[in-house]
Every structure is written in structure tokens, then in C-alpha cells.
Amino acid sequence: MSRLLHVADGPYAPPVPAHELTVTAADGARIHVEVHGPENAPAVVLAHGWCCSTAFWAAQIRELAADHRVIAYDQRGHGRSPANPAYGTEPLADDVEAVLEATLAPGERAVIAGHSMGGMTLMAAATRPAVREHAAAVLLCSTGSARLVASATVVPMRAGRIRTWLTRRILGSRAPLGPVTPLARRILKYGTMGPGSGPHMVDACARIVHACPSRVRHGWSQVLDLLDLDHGVRELRMPVEIVVGTADRLTPPVHARALAAALPDCVGLTELPGLGHMTPVEAPDLVTGKIRALAATYIPSARSERAVLAEESA
Length: 314
Fold this sequence. Notes:
43% helix, globular, 16% strand
């Protein structure tokens, strides 16, 4: 019955950041930001999804911070970023732009990874100057650009008006999620994770999702219901890689395939058999490896540092 905001130990326990800061977005929203790893290392920026927080990226932060500067932030209303009355894709774009401007030096390039609503954030911000300046490459995990409710398979019935209506009522519910109980874990696993997800993965995700305030969860559900960012996908002109689980009920692989077809420079689409929507938690090593490989390929300083480390270990 614990109300812990995240697990306290194990691979999904959030590491302590090197430092934290609060960034102010264009409309005055305050965004909590964490920075991990060496100050002058190649940069990685992590944008989490709906109902999550920086704790969602704990496994990636723990591994990447050894030789990258990892910047993770809480979407407005999530984690330690206060709720704000502005909901919409433009506020999401405002927030990531403010984070990039506050944490990266002029001209500094970074790999930006977005999961679910974090990926949608990058689509919404695709034409923003800060994204054009700083994004060396992008990783999109378990996300989509439009028609999310109609294509979701949370309700186990044939696609159509009835399923869409039921899905909209479930995802848009105002009801509090309550404490993390065994039943709550089973429900969350069914809706968001693959059948093979271990109990420690399910518990980590349940604690993060249940910590999201119900009003925030409902407010952003309305944005996701009406989402139409197909135009933003076409504006992501940097190299973009995509990861999706074949058992993803919230953003099924049909979305990933559509993204791959529409992106100007898609450098890879990986479909993970049997995995659900929470790919950074369900396949932590693979997702971390994708981010690391993108940095090594597209950030010159990352290539140089990798060469230095290789020489030192020789």
C-alpha cells in the first residue's frame, strides 16, 4: 500500500544527480531538470512519457552517466515539475526548448530520446530553433503521432467506434489510481507492459505512474486523444531511430511503421517481440545501447572520447 514515488533500490531506483535546476518555459511553467555524469562529456537528453517522471529513465541514466552528461527533465505537472493550467503540444515544445537552451552550450549537439509523450514532445518541437540547433540525433521509443485512441488495443475487441469509445473513457478517467496494490500492478502490466515483464519492472512502473496526480493524468489524456503531429514527424530532419514492442497496447507497432515511413532520415526501426509500451524499462540494455550508439555516431565529441577510452584500455 506504499505511496513511494519510485522504487528505492535495484536497477530502477533513480541515481542521485550531479546537480538539479529549475528551468522556466516561455509561459512561466517551472520545469525540474536533473543532470548526471561528467560535465564535459557528450550530452544525452531524456524526455519521459505520460504519467511518468525522470525516475522512468533510471536504468539508462545509471549506465550512460559513466561517460555521458545525461539531462533528464520532468514534463510539466509530472514528477517535481509543478502542474500548470496550459495543456497542449505547444507547451510540451516550449518545455523541451527551454531545457535545451538552459543546459546545452550554443552549438552543442546532443542525442535526444523521447518515450511515448516524450517522443510526441519532440515531434511538436521539430521546427523549434533549439531542437534544430542541438539535436544531433533522436531516439523515439513506443510513440505515435496521431490517432492514438482509435488504434490502442487496451480494450480486447475489434477496432471500431465501440472500442474507441471505451478506450477513451478508460484512458481519460479522472479516478485516482490509489495505492500500488497487487491488483494495481496486474492492471498496469496488462495495459502497458509485455506478458514477460518481471515483477521488479512492473513495480517500478506502477510506483511512477501511480505518483502522477489524477488531474494531470486526465488533462494530458485529453491532449493525447486529439493528437495530430503528422506534420511534426516530417520536420524531424535529423537522424531518427525508432523502438517499439510488438505487444504495445497504447502505441502499437502500426505507429512506429508509419513514423519510419514519414521521417526524412529514419536510420532504424526495431520491433521487440513480446514487449509492451514501457520499452526503456522492459529492454533497458537495448534502449541504452541505442542511445549510446547514436551518440557515438552523430556527436563528434562522443567519437573522440570513445577513441580515448579505447586507447586507455588497450
